[in-house]
């Protein structure tokens, strides 16, 4: 990804100022929503290592394998509950749009986040119809 590219999370900032430093481990996500955005960005740029690192340790899979044929197009945040700088838990509902095998699709999920050792991590999610 070049410096002039906008971040896939669609906050309207360049990647190197938005999710790039979070994926690189240079700083943590300050909120549950920021972590959700960084995880979407990791899917979009193919960073399975970051996805694994940002998973709660009690639920972290041994390996995260990404579908190289799936192209993540854009992210919509539907709602956010808690998950701020002074919270320990949060919920983010989102719709992630993708294209796979020439067909458009979307993933609608309500995700739970928590702090682990002071950092926001993904706990789990429920996929909505």
From TrEMBL:
Q: Where is the YchJ-like middle NTF2-like domain?
A: 31-125
UniProt-listed InterPro entries:
NTF2-like_dom_sf, YchJ-like_M
Gene3D superfamilies on file: 3.10.450.50
What's the domain of life for this entry? Bacteria
Protein name per Swiss-Prot or TrEMBL: YchJ family metal-binding protein
